[in-house]
Amino acid sequence: MKLPVSRRALAAAALTTLVATLGMAGAAQAAAPGPDLAVKINASKLVIDAAGKSFNIEVRNDGKGEARDVLLTIDLSKLNDKVVVQDKPDGIDCFPGEGKSWVCKLHTLPAGYLSTDLGVTLAPATPGELLGDAGELTATLSQSKDTPDANKRDNTARVHVALVGAGVDYRVMSVPNIEDVRITEDKKVTVAVDNNGSVTGAGLSLVMTLPRYARFGEKIKGCSYKDVAGDRQQAKCSWRTSVDEGGTETRIVFEPGVPSLFDLPVRATDDAPAGTNLGRATVEVGALEVYVPETDVPAEFAAPAGVTVKESAAPAGALKRPTDADPKDNRARFTVTTAAGDADLAVTGARLTGTVGAQVKGKVTVANKGGWASPAGAKLVVAAPKGTSIVGSALPKGCAVTGECALPAIPAGKDVAVEFTFQLDAAGSTAGTATVTGALADKDTTNNSAPVTAEIAAAPATPGPAVTPGPAGNLPVTGGQLTALIAVGAAILAGGVILLVAARRRRTVITVLPE
Fold it and tell me: Which helix (H) or strand (E) covers residue 251, if one does?
């Protein structure tokens, strides 16, 4: 875990150009009727003794179709003489309109488009100007008649500009849409923050909420992370110090008019869809304290002699958290778009061994070595080796007896195993194949197939009937001869019994005595 990295912004104009975001509208979506343009002005107050600020204008296309020939008209005619307009609006291709107005060409805005980089800079007309209402600022969007707007009620935004007293005025100066977000690596979201008040602020509170399928990457010291709304991640950060570009930890101080940049790393979730505008993220900032130099610490904030100040106690120079002069510009939105999808499906084959007549199991594994989840429905085809066949009564889920399988989704870096049962039908050494094709582009097709080999031995010979040797020189008696001999033996035995009975009868002597 590391401290946040901050750095001074090079130029305010570079951070508030529209050029960067015109190409950051998210992934292209199928054109459909019904673009829905919407506009919002993200500021309403000016600190009286400050130098002024840009009133950022949020432009969106909330519809499902692209808007063409889009124009943004900024009407300044209802502002009074308490404020002045400094230069033309931030952005490109803007020109004076009718009366006191500016017209900016935004050209074609795809579905899901969001930009907060366009704005108009206002300032108090004179130092110490009286407080109060400074009039109305209006922004209106229009587009080609060929692409009618689905909801024109949000095509115009109005704010009443007010001059307020001294204080801090933190603002999200710029937060660009981020593209090419991946699962396996962090992408920095750079938030530019400045103070448009008249009082120096110290420390920074920052809350960022990501859309579904986006998550925070490397954890930053001073931030806590949690899930909100069930499937969105949120980071709440509270920083009093940061690490500058030279690696030195310094106190975070916001002098009026001097912006700083802060990075939070994000990445896509394992199940994020590739090449998709995931939707809008939000970021909100605020001051932790009004800055007081450490050499001028009021006595009531100094620790008594012999007392150790705990980490949770206010640091030297800290006062209570100030009220922001214009909370409306403390918050901004941006979009998160995933990179174009690719997967690298790799197959590991199986080796079958056994004897003819046996059934054996063979496991084929499909791994996703790419950077995105392979969607459900990738096709695996297993061609059984010659001399084998797939057992239809023991098929894996999603597979047919033909060897074709519809695979489940395979997250990046994960694999799925499919186990078939094979009948070994003939002896020999043969090989089949296992081949996979997925829905995403495969950056390495050389590993999409692998052999399924079989080493099948012949079944051992079936043993014959037992053989009993006969007397020397004679052949053994078997089969039908044995049956005949048994019958003869039985007849001889029966005859012997009859002869025995007859012999016994002949032995009976009958003696006749003389008269």
Answer: strand 249-251
Last residue of a domain, one of 457, 483, 503: 457
Please give the single-letter amino acid code of residue 345.
Answer: L
Q: Please tell me whether residue 192 adopts helix, strand or coil conformation.
A: strand
- Decide: 214 and 336 in contact? Cβ < 8 Å: yes
Show the tokens assigned to 9. 């912004």
User: What distance lies between CA 231 and its chain's CA centroid?
Assistant: 11
pLDDT digits (tens, 9 = 90+) for 272-302: 888 899 999 999 999 998 888 765 444 444 4
The pLDDT value recorded for residue 388 is 97
- Residue appearing with tokens 């124009």: 71
Do 282 and 364 reside in the same domain of the chain? no
> DSSP states of 92-112 as a string?
SSEEE-SSSEEEEEEEEE-TT
CA 68 to chain centre: 31
For the residues of 200-231, what is the DSSP string, one character each?
Answer: -EE-EEEEEEPPTTEEE-S-BTTEEEEEETTT
- Tokens, residue 391: 């057992």
CB distance 360 to 421 below 8 Å? yes
Decide: residue 236, CB within 10 A, 0-12 exposed, 13-18 middle, 19+ buried. Answer: middle
Q: Which of 294, 300, 291 is nearest to 322 (CA)?
A: 291
| C-alpha neighbours within 13 Å on the C-beta side of residue 133 | 7
Pairing of strands 178-181, 331-338: parallel
Pair (333, 349) in one structural domain: no
Residue 27 is part of which domain span? 6-287+322-340
Structural domain contains residue 189: yes
Domain count, the chain: 2
Q: How many separate helices (H) and strands (E) can be counted in the chain?
A: 3, 37
pLDDT tens, position by position, 32-62: 468 999 999 999 999 998 999 999 999 999 9
Provide the CATH number for the domain around residue 388: 2.60.40.10
Task: Return the bridge partners of 337, or none.
Answer: 277
Counting other chains too, the contacts that 459-467 makes at CB distance below 8 Å and 24 or more residues apart are 459/355, 459/356, 459/357, 460/355
Q: How many CB atoms lie within 10 A of CB 241?
A: 17
What are 40's strand-pairing partners? 58
Dihedral over Cα of 399, 403, 407, 411: its sign: positive
HSE, CB side, 13 Å, CA atoms: give it for residue 163. 25
Long-range contacts of 389-394 (CB under 8 A, 24+ apart): 389/422, 389/423, 389/425, 390/420, 390/421, 390/422, 390/423, 391/359, 391/420, 391/421, 391/422, 391/423, 394/420, 394/421
pTM summary value: 0.69
